[in-house]
Amino acid sequence: MTSQTRRIRFVQPDLTNEDIQAVVAALRANHLGGNGAVGQRVQARLRGLVGTRHALLTTSCSHALEIAMMALDIGAGDEVIVPSFAFVTAASAIVRQGARPVFAEIDEFTFNLNPDDVARRITPRTRAVVCVHYAGQGCRMDELITLAREHDLYVVEDAAQAIGAGYGGRPLGTFGHAGCFSFHITKNIIAGEGGAFVTGDDDIARRAEIIREKGTNRSAFLRGEVDKYSWVDIGSSFVPSDLLAALLGSQLARLEEITQHRVELWYGYYEGMARLEETGLVIRPGLDPQAEINGHIYAFRVAPGIRDRVIEGLKARGIESTFHFVPLHSSPYAQKAFGCHRDDLPVTERVAASLIRLPLHTQLSMDDIEFILEQLEQVLKK
Ligand SMILES: Cc1ncc(COP(=O)(O)O)c(C=O)c1O
Fold first, then answer.
1. Best substitution site from 57, 89, 106, 357 to test ligand 1's pocket, by max atoms within 8 Å of Cβ?
2. What is the phi/psi pair of residue 348, to 5°?
3. Given pLDDT bands bounded at 50, 70 and 90, which one contains residue 4?
4. Long-range contacts of range 116-121, CB-CB < 8 Å, 24 or more positions apart?
5. What would you measure as the largest C-alpha separation in the chain, in angstroms?
6. Cα 343 from Cα 329, distance rounded (Å)
7. pTM assigned to the model
8. What number does the ligand 1 atom closest to the CA of 132 have?
9. Is the distance from the beta carbon of residue 62 to the nearest atom of ligand 1 less than 6 Å?
10. How do residues 173-232 score in pLDDT, each as one tens digit?
């Protein structure tokens, strides 16, 4: 196949006949709403896979982050530290509560929240830290948890990209007071749209369950614990349909297989790029020795001035690649609402301007990875 005829998509869902059958079976079971038998079964499976006491399926990771902020009573006057190199809803979940996001730097090589910079930004108003496990690689959780304990802060893990990944032998999402996962179409395990809220804390779980059900005690009612359900707290509508839960359940059954395939491809890129790194044309991602990655994203860096040209060059050769987060502190909203300035976070700016993500999904082979790296080398040397 020539470079002209090969087209390599950036993401491709991994859907099987079993996935389709699972949704059809859920449709036939005639429970189209949420939190039914299927939803509860999948929640139990997720609890086991993540190794957490409580797991609630949600309509998205963004909603799981909102549940976290509500359940932890983050409110007006509070500050929450969050990386600027993050998806917008890690910050907007804070802002919706009337609290202020305080943007922190990432590590230049792992692209994860830098605990030293977090420490510098703690004030008497700080209530929580949100960490993002970028690309499915765990943040430096030992340091973050120690820091949080010293200052009596909550830790919320944005584990949107981190299903199946661990740090020092412990699954991501289980270090903090809450963990938030995404099963969006772009993730390793998909439900189309969807997410999960996990916690090891019984009180937080009780409150999150109510928040997820429009602020009512409907879940307790369904368990027969109360004779009718009513409005008991703040909340919104965050329960996904059992149809999506069915797809998620079927996907989760292949978590290990999908993760293993992706991790092999990830290392294919990483090892294949070593030679290019020696020439100084690329910087490979940094690997924390404690991190057990899940191969969610392969992101590397080039000189900022050539990044867009490289993406265009790959596109001309049939390969889809892309940049990632536009730093939140330099967004129009953060500048207007919080007076943030572009120069506030130089490491984040530098990383965001130089980062490229390459195709990574289970329909790729090692041969594809070699082809992509060959094409990349040609584009870079042009
Ligand atoms: C790090 C991170 N957090 C949160 C989200 C939001 O996930 P969802 O689309 O499930 O709301 C994403 C989605 O891309 C993400 O990458």
1. 89
2. -60, -45
3. low
4. 118/81, 118/144, 118/147, 119/147, 121/81
5. 72
6. 9
7. 0.97
8. 1
9. yes
10. 999 999 999 999 999 999 999 999 999 999 999 999 999 999 999 999 999 999 999 999
**Residue 27: domain span:** 17-252
Same domain, 80 and 211: yes
Cβ 359 vs Cβ 326: under 8 Å: no
The pair phi, psi for residue 195, each rounded to 5°, is -165, -170
**Closest C-alpha among 254, 260, 357, 321 to residue 15:** 254
Residues 170 and 290 reside in one and the same domain: no
Place of tokens 């490229």: 356
The tens digit of pLDDT for each residue in 114-166 reads 999 999 999 999 999 999 999 999 999 999 999 999 999 999 999 999 999 99
Is the C-beta atom of 240 inside 6 A of ligand 1?
no
- Partners of 104 in the β-ladder: 83
DSSP output for 217-245: -HHHHHTTSSSS--B-S---B-PPBHHHH
What burial letters (b/e) apply to 54-90, b meaning 16+ CB within 10 Å?
bbbbbbbbbbbbbbbbbbbebeeebbbbbbbbbbebb
Q: What is the dihedral of CA 112, 286, 310, 106, to 10 degrees?
A: 20
Q: Which atom of ligand 1 is nearest to the CA of 186?
A: 14
- For residue range 241-252, what is the model confidence (pLDDT) as tens digits? 999 999 999 999
Residue 142 lies in a domain: yes
DSSP SS3 for 323: coil
The model's pLDDT over 277-322, given as tens digits with 9 standing for 90+, comes to 999 999 999 999 999 999 999 999 999 899 999 999 999 999 999 9
83 lies in the same domain as 130 = yes
CB-ligand 1 contact for 90 (6 Å cutoff) = yes
Mean pLDDT across the chain: 96
Asked, for residue 200, whether it belongs to a domain, the answer is: yes
Number of domains into which the chain is organized: 2
Instruction: Give the Cα separation of 85 and 324 in Å (integer).
Output: 9
Q: Can you tell me whether residue 105 is helix, strand or coil?
A: coil
Tokens representing residue 208 in the block: 């999150």
pLDDT in tens, 6-43: 899 999 999 999 999 999 999 999 889 999 999 999 99
325: left (phi over 0), alpha (psi -120 to 50) or beta: beta
